[in-house]
Each structure stands twice: as structure tokens, then as C-alpha cells.
């Protein structure tokens, strides 16, 4: 026969302190995007930089700014510097880094080769790259629709399972006569739509961006078609340098006296902690952009 609890036992239980609340685990992540302009543009200071100098420069920007990134998106990189960058980041930070790149090709499949370094040595193929501070990560490239008369494009994504993070970087077509030249920015519109689709991964936090080659919707710069193309991303995500409800930000690209924002980092609404846009540098025609988020 079961014994009923006494009033003394009930009173003792009531006086016991409540069980401590389980602390909510949050993930913090920092990301940098930078078009390093090293491949074929002779107007940039990193043009024809060898692998050691390129890795050293990127490493400096990854470790000496107010936000120190765990993920790097790089554009106009050279695939021959992948290993140097990975080793350099490990040495600077004491962390394990993984670097992967996706190389641009012509419509016919020929490599879009970087110009050689100043000693005449090959530097690989112009690429987009991702560097991730993690022991393990999986990488996947997703082809983008691109004009059949110019280079192919892609989104390169890294999934960091330990953080449940899906990070994707890209470099979209340019609105010039040799690239996305038709009225209405048709290829960049489709590229951005595809970027949003592959950046969303069920069960993961999405962070994505890069050099999108369009101006923000409320900036009043660039083409109206380009501004319309990126508007859907602002409806679904928060951009790093976005202030209030304005869909714009500080300039990140300069060409002579023309300045506009072309470089972006998007994250889920409510997750953005800080944004930093580095000072202009003669090394590149783009400024690095840094994002800190928490999920």
C-alpha cells in the first residue's frame, strides 16, 4: 500500500529553490567580404600580387579590424593563392581554416586566367573564394544564369554544421556592354533570385553576400533595373550597413569620382550586431565590409 506524502514533506518541497534555468545557447559569427581586385585589373594595387603577398594582405584585413571574421568571401581572387591563404590565416589566428575557391571560365569552358605575378609566374584562375575558421565544413558551388557571351558565374557556399551556419559568397555580372548589357538587368535579376534560393538551407542560419554589382534600392545610384533586382533581398533579410528602414549604405566601390555601394552582407532580421566598412585603399577598387551577427 502506497503511503501518502505528509504535510511536512509537501511543505519541504515547496521551500526548495527552483531548478536553475538552462542558459540559451547562441551562436556568434563574423563575416568579411572583399573584392581584392588582384586578377586582371591593372588599376589596383594588388594586381599581379604573388600568392604570399595576397595571402598576407587578406590576413591583415582579417585580423586587424574592429570585427575579426570567422568567414571570408573574396572576389577577383586567384586560385593559386588558396593554400597560402589557408596557411597564413592559421598562422595569424592559431585557428584551423579551410579555403575553397570556384574558378571562372568563359562560356566555352576556358579558364579565365589571372595575369601572372611580377616575376612572370602563373597565379591560377580568377575565382571567388570562401575561407572558414572551422575544423570541418562542407562546400558546394551552385551555377548561376549568366550571359552566354561572357564568363560563367556561381555562388560558393560553406556549411558549418557545428554552428548550423550556411554561408554563401558570390560575384555577379556587371551591367556593361560585355556582360549583363540588356535592358532591365535580366541576368543580375535572375542571379540574385538564385542566390537567395541557394543561401536558404533548412535548419541553418543563412549569411550571404559579396560583390553583387548593383546599387541599393534607395541609393539613387546605378541603374534603376539593378536597384530593383536587389530589392527582394532587403524584404527578406537585413543588410549589414542598412540604417533604419532605408535600403542603402556607405559606398564600397570607386571608379574615378564615381562611388557606389556594390558589396553586401545579408543576414536574418534581428541577428545583425555590428557592421564595419573599411577605409578606402589603393590595394583594390573595393572596400572590405565586415558583419557581426548572433543567432
Structural features, described:
The chain has helices spanning 7-15, 51-63, 82-93, 186-199, 224-236; strands at 28-35, 71-78, 97-103, 126-133, 138-144, 153-160, 165-171, 205-211, 238-239, 253-255, 258-260, 263-267, 272-277, 289-294. With 295 residues, it is α+β, with helices and mostly antiparallel strands. The strands form 3 sheets. Strands 3-4-2-1-14-13 form a 6-stranded mixed sheet, with helices on one face. The protein has a 6-stranded mixed sheet with strand order 5-6-7-8-12-9, with helices on one face. A two-stranded antiparallel sheet has the order 10-11. Helix 2 packs parallel to helix 3 and helix 4 (186-199) packs parallel to helix 5 (224-236). The relative contact order is 0.16.
The helix content, as a percent range, equals 10-25%
Q: Within the largest sheet, what's the order of strands?
A: 3-4-2-1-14-13
| Sheet of most strands | 6 strands, mixed
Q: What is the β-strand count?
A: 14
Q: Identify low-pLDDT runs.
A: none
